[in-house]
Amino acid sequence: LPGARSAVAGAFVMDRPTSYADATSYNNFYEFGTDKADPTEHAHTLKTRPWTVSIEGECGRPGRFDIEALLKLAPMEERLYRLRCVEGWSMVIPWTGYSLAELLKQAQPTSKAKYVEFTSLADRSQMPGVRSGVLDWPYVEGLRIDEAMHPLAMLVFGMYGEMLPNQNGAPLRLALPWKYGFKSAKSIVKIRFVEKEPMSSWTKAAQQEYGFYSNVNPSVPHPRWSQAAERRIGEDGLFSKKRPTLMFNGYEAQVGQLYAGMDLKRFY
Amino acid sequence: MKLLLSTAPQASASLPAPSGGRTARGLVQAALLSRAAKPLLFIACLLPLAWLVYGAFANQLGANPAEALIRRLGDWTLRGLMIALAITPLRELSGLAALARFRRMLGLFTFSYASLHLLAYGWLDMGLDFGDIGRDIAKRPFILMGFTAWLLLLPLAATSFNRAIRLLGAKRWQALHKAVYAISVIALMHFIWMRAGKHNFAEPAVYGVILAALLGWRVYRRLRGKKPRLG
């Protein structure tokens, strides 16, 4: 999947990309199992064609988009983003896609559209993990509308110049580089504009541990571990000290103003 | 150990042997009593560690080898606890008294895996920053649980030699070593709590069922043992 180098500010980090092998074999995609090796093993059963995404809720032009139409909706860009998992590890991934705003604007959200809710596919026949009760399926995530409209919020169709592998959220997913990885919903089938803050799946599962915002923040620890440092997959040696985690995962210059004046300990 | 061995032949002799089963059990018992049994078990107990060390050097532990090492050492600690706790029920149910010979080695290996698990966490996860480790233990219940379980294992490991049994007296020694019941429950809670945030209880549930059976058997036997006196 070819893409031109993105001109969006902050779209290219200076970090070394994680190896394709690591990025496609160490995944959290619970629809295919809770072990990190499960998605790469089981996701081949996912059928990504035909695929439609329905756009619903508080917008002037709701409708259904075919994946082929979405691929042509805006010019493809390549961006190199950091990905920080809430578990304390990180990767650097070259994504291909475009700003989520390109799609959202087409739907013409109304003034009531304060938030955007994303729903992932939950099909037992294709996704063995959906049979387990680990989460309340389908997987739901949400963003405030201004977060969703931020140019760094990316709708992703490919990585490493190729179409997205199934285990990484094919055929389309989000990449929100300043938030913990689980906020970036995978295999999206529904995008809904809503007035009230959506309840995301992880917040529903453990409110104390996973807040709605889940911005990368080294000074707000997870209840069971510190978030001050992270291990860069494939790069940091077994015995090297973990590297410090950056505020907003290093994207503070770009996204900091979205949260001006907010108590980030309260809105974690 | 002497104490346990001395009871072994009597125990096996006093059990009624069903026809046909006697020779099979006799053979197993002989194998368990053979001189090769302990060295073989020793090697078997080293295999998981050897596999992990090989995996670390051969880059076979996946994308996050540090996490894999910490978790698998923890897994083997739990398994070690379960195996050690299974010896007594197995011995009594099968009549293979010689099984008791292996309890100490299993216990010490379990302690070793627990120590390596702690070391791997402290080194690979916390960079041997003792200030950070101390704060982590104080702040996070599941880390505190794991650390407590390891601390409680210390006196058991320290009194695992024959002289300690003589010094303490068999009764006191046995009472002390019953702490392993509490330790296994704490270790399991450490695992459950670790998985709690991700709602992933499938594996802890398996250990939970096994541990419940192992401890439940002891409770059941105790209650049944007392019944005649009550009646």
Q: Which structural class best describes the helix and strand composition of chain A?
A: alpha+beta
Largest interface: chains, residues each: A-B, 29 and 28 residues
The description of the largest β-sheet of chain B is: none
Mean pLDDT figure of chain B: 88
Percent of residues of chain A in beta strands?
15-25%
Rg of chain B to the nearest angstrom? 20 Å
Question: Tally the helices of chain B: what do you get?
Answer: 11
Are there runs of chain B of 5+ residues with pLDDT below 50, and where?
1-20, 227-231
Distance between the termini of chain B: 35 Å
Distance between the termini of chain A: 35 Å
| Rg of chain A, nearest Å | 17 Å
Contiguous runs where pLDDT drops below 50 for at least 5 residues of chain A = none
Q: Count every beta strand of chain A, where a strand is a DSSP E run of 2 or more residues.
A: 13
Mean pLDDT of chain A: 96
Would you list the SSEs of chain A in sequence order as H and E?
Answer: EHHEEHEEHEEHEEEEHEEH
State the assembly state of the protein chains: heterodimer
Major sheet size, sense and barrel closure of chain A: 8 strands, mixed
Helix content of chain A: 10-25%
Subcellular location (chain B): Cell membrane; Membrane
Membrane topology (chain B): Multi-pass membrane protein
Domain Ferric oxidoreductase (chain B): 82-187
Cofactor (chain B): heme b; FMN
What does this structure look like?
The complex is a heterodimer of chains A (268) and B (231). Chain A has 268 residues and is of the alpha+beta class. Helices cover 13% and strands 25% of the residues of chain A. Chain A has helices spanning 20-23, 38-42, 67-72, 100-106, 145-149, 201-205, 252-255, and strands at 4-5, 52-57, 63-66, 77-84, 89-99, 115-120, 140-144, 154-159, 162-163, 173-175, 188-194, 229-232, 243-244. In chain A, strands 1, 4, 5, 8, 9, 10, 12 and 13 form an eight-stranded mixed beta sheet that branches. In chain A, strands 3-2-11-6-7 form a five-stranded mixed beta sheet. The termini of chain A are far apart. In chain A, 47% of the residues are buried. The mean pLDDT of chain A is 96. Chain B has 231 residues and is an all-alpha fold. In chain B, helix 4 runs antiparallel to helix 10 (179-196). The longest helix of chain B is centred in the middle third of the chain and has 30 residues, at 65-94. The relative contact order of chain B is 0.10. The A-B interface holds A 21-22, 25-26, 34, 36-37, 89, 132-135, 205-206, 209-210, 221-226, 231, 233-234, 238-239, 241-242 and B 56, 62-67, 69, 123-125, 127, 129, 132, 136, 139-143, 193-194, 196-200, 202. Chain B: Keywords: Cell membrane, Electron transport, Flavoprotein, FMN, Heme, Iron, Membrane, Metal-binding, Transmembrane, Transmembrane helix, Transport. Chain B: GO terms for molecular function: electron transfer activity; FMN binding; heme binding; metal ion binding; oxidoreductase activity, acting on diphenols and related substances as donors. Chain B: It is a multi-pass membrane protein. Chain B: Residues 1-22 are annotated as: Disordered.
